[in-house]
């Protein structure tokens, strides 16, 4: 495999622009004809050839200003069409034949459950027709879709429908016009026999927008929550950012074969069914929240991504980091803000911190890639969102809004860079943010060390802060970041002390310190007694905070901090300490016992009836194995699992009565409701059951069976079946079977059924997963199924995937061998599970390296998989 890298520094403005595109699709069962007419205009007179992108296309015809083009005027290769000496302005006519019916990569035009749909971002449009398939070429599109009326009654594309008609041969057509210039990656087409749910939204300026959600006919009763979420998102964006929708119609189509979550095509979003369909009996509370956030995310892209887009794919975080931040703020406003923030950080720490510390670490704005699809990463998205959040933390909500307003004022209709965004924020607020740009250029998670010093005689508290950042593949030495550190000081009874730095005259409450140097000290005056500092409140920067709190101080913060994030964080840190302490004790040959501080923390939490149940649930959840693994120089896979299980069981035994009482008290009676209170109660109750289930008592087994039978909602049903399947419940096999029988017609529930089996820690799980590969409901061509079974096993079952005999790794290699020829994007994603091989012991390292080498030896490897495997081995 030879693959070449694309570099940010090689960016050149396009030599030609396209003003207008007219597309005509004749959709067929054995091939689709695509005709396009492009109005082109030369930008750079020094360039004497036009290079269009195109892959897997059969060229049927080519005209220039309506005259057939002689063979010597152009050249076709596997990925380009070159026109020699084109005029300064001309119309190019291109006819191609493509095969959506054979497209298993799910990029470009393809079929899902018999319907046609598209996925063009980032470079799928070139698999539809020859084009300047780059985001800085923005054109007005008119699209005519022609297809058999019977099979494809719905014909959809971007913009507004302007004309429709019938053909004599049983086909019909619809013409769509999108008045907004857009890059080709936002193009979309859908044709099929679909049910539709309709509603409308009146914008704040009084325009009525038609809202339509399309799905398979028997699923239209599962679209209500998505529709309600869309309307909330539209209102929120008007209120928070003054942004209004701009077309007369907004359509969402749910398809079951989709490489990722959803896609923000202009006026015609295409969604994975997972992020549209929900009914209380089929979807969990987490699913409902996930739908609300993804629906909002794609809607928000209409401004951050579509109206203002990216100059090139290196700027991906310009739209993704910003839009994730926007959807996070939306979810925080719609639900428990404290829990939303904790979830964001949990996710960042479990997925992004490891990436930032491994061989695939890259800056929020990467400088090189082989396959851009590999760069839709947690770093670009989630760390990118943290970077955007830091602007808001530094500038305040109002200052951030001013920056956003200026950004749209300057760049509406343009394709821009991360510098442009930073400049808008800086200029709108009269600030110099040049140092802040380092967050885009330097990879790696900085460490922030904090040390406090109290001088009783001077009534003075000094906070010493120091930052450092580990080397990453792109750079060994890092320049200091501008780190916003939100702090408060608590006195001994838990109240906030007024804060006055030595150069200030008046005191304020909690505030944001700006750390700009490698080391800096902040001196607070008039501090009456030694305080407990609450640092990095709300997780004000994506860093690892190191501070030598005593166990008592952490217990104190967990109980008293007014910053809910830091209450949770204090509890997490006690959990981390407990696990690491057990591992240390065992290394010294001693037996384990339940750490008293953790027992004390749980006693307090279980007796706390004033805290929001959703927050309590978070505080009662032990740190994930992924986060714990990050704290170890060499990951002790089995030790971590054993220690965590020991704590789970130890806490359950120690606090059995309290857990039981809570389960009783929290039972939700009456009809299912999705309000925050009910969600919190279900979550906390299920968490208590999770502890109790570790005891494997007959009593708990009965409780679980009862919950599985009687629950009217998937949140409780799934919690019960998972605990039954993962433990020693006598009816576990029967329960699994009847769960499948009951839900076999709901593909998304069947996905849950695969996942709960793949994540079982039982010794025979891999064998069982291999059997499930043959199950009639499993399908390697369907990404949701692959993620549910193979992805869940490799990423969410560390003890079994990292089995010391290498069986988990061999299993993954076999799946990559099968998948790469079908769908390289999904294959490359799965490979992520092997990239952090350096973190493991010598035996596992050798096995993981061997697996990566076996993959690199394969013939005809995709650039997607090649890039991940080769970088993983090199790093
Ligand atoms: N922009 C799309 C992601 C496209 C991924 C292509 N591999 C969805 C989103 O982030 O909203
Ligand atoms: Zn996005």
Itemize the secondary structure elements and their pairings.
Layout: E1 6-7, E2 16-26, E3 32-42, E4 49-53, E5 58-64, E6 67-68, E7 74-76, E8 80-84, E9 89-98, E10 108-112, E11 115-119, E12 139-148, E13 154-157, E14 160-166, E15 171-182, E16 189-192, E17 195-202, E18 208-215, H1 224-241, E19 249-255, E20 262-263, E21 268-272, H2 285-300, E22 309-310, H3 316-334, H4 337-356, E23 368-369, H5 378-411, E24 415-416, H6 418-429, H7 438-441, E25 447-455, E26 460-468, E27 483-490, E28 511-515, E29 519-524, E30 532-535, E31 544-547, H8 551-560, H9 564-587, H10 596-607, H11 613-619, H12 625-630, H13 637-654, H14 656-666, H15 676-693, H16 698-710, H17 714-726, H18 732-743, H19 747-758, H20 765-773, H21 783-795, H22 798-801, H23 807-819, H24 824-831, H25 842-856, H26 863-874
This protein binds (3S)-3,7-diaminoheptanoic acid and zinc ion.
Domain Peptidase M1 membrane alanine aminopeptidase: 226-439
GO molecular function, one term: zinc ion binding
Pfam families: DUF3458, DUF3458_C, Peptidase_M1, Peptidase_M1_N
Task: Walk me through the structure.
- This protein has an 8-stranded mixed β-sheet, with no helix packed on it. The protein has a 5-stranded mixed β-sheet with strand order 17-18-19-21-20, with helices on one face.
- Among the domains are: 6-193, tricorn interacting facor f3 domain (Immunoglobulin-like), CATH 2.60.40.1730; 309-441, Neutral Protease Domain 2 (Neutral Protease, domain 2), CATH 1.10.390.10; 447-541, Aminopeptidase N, middle-beta domain (Immunoglobulin-like), CATH 2.60.40; 744-875, Peptidase M1, alanyl aminopeptidase, C-terminal domain (Zincin-like fold).
- Helix 23 (807-819) runs antiparallel to helix 24 (824-831).
- The longest helix is centred in the middle third of the chain and has 34 residues, at 378-411.
- Strand 18, helix 1 (224-241) and strand 19 (249-255) form a beta-alpha-beta unit.
- The model has no long low-confidence stretch (mean pLDDT 97).
- The protein is of the alpha+beta class.
- Helix content is 40%, strand content 21%.
